[in-house]
Amino acid sequence: MPTTKKESLQFGVMMCFGMVLLMTVYNYYLNGMIGKMTIMEGLSDFLIGFVIALILDMLIVGPNAKKIALKITANTKKKIYTVLAISICMVIGMAFFMSIYGLVTTYIHNGFTSSSVVKDYVVIFSSNLIMALPLQIIIMGPFVRFIFSRYIKSTKHSELRGV
């Protein structure tokens, strides 16, 4: 897929945008926030989450997920196994960190509502992982790879050929 830093950034922006958008709506639904917050509050929460996710993707989770996935799939020649391994490692890493973000924002908005931060984190992490893994593997991953290969990669190849 991405072969240059620019392409990696473009791919990461598209993937983060889609995943953060859908996961934000999912979490608003889970917390009963749809209809209770203004559009501006929703957009600002989305933008903050998007920036944090993009930074995590580019600097921490992405590089480490790729290293782990490439080690796991080193003995396979099937690219689909590598793609799935990277996707799974990315989802686990992003769910881990973004659940911390979700926990912090929940405490900021609602205060401490239970006696166990660890329990709250495990609940948030598991509910995010349950949604994010199939969302990434079945919907967003294939969709973003299609858009990327169709419009970003094809544009680059057209420019190289002088078309």
Write the layout of secondary structure elements.
Elements: H1 5-30, H2 39-72, H3 79-110, H4 117-161
Helix pairs in contact: 1-2, 1-4, 2-3, 3-4
Task: Summarize the structure in words.
The protein is mostly helical and 163 residues long. The protein has one domain. Helices cover 84% and strands 0% of the residues. Helix 1 crosses helix 2 (39-72), helix 1 (5-30) packs antiparallel against helix 4 (117-161) and helix 3 packs across helix 4 (117-161). It is globular. The two termini are 21 Å apart.
Brief synopsis:
The chain has 163 residues and is mainly α. Helix content is 84%, strand content 0%. It comes from Ornithinibacillus hominis.
Structural class: mainly alpha
Residue stretches low in confidence (pLDDT < 50, at least 5 long) are: none
The arrangement of helices and strands along the chain is HHHH
Radius of gyration: 17 Å
Give the count of helical stretches: 4
Please describe the biggest sheet, giving its number of strands, its sense, and whether it closes into a barrel. none
The gross shape turns out to be globular
State the share of residues found in helices, binned by percent: over 70%
How far apart are the termini? 21 Å
Mean pLDDT: 89
Strand residue percentage:
under 5%
Number of spatially distinct domains: 1
How many β-strands, per DSSP?
Answer: 0
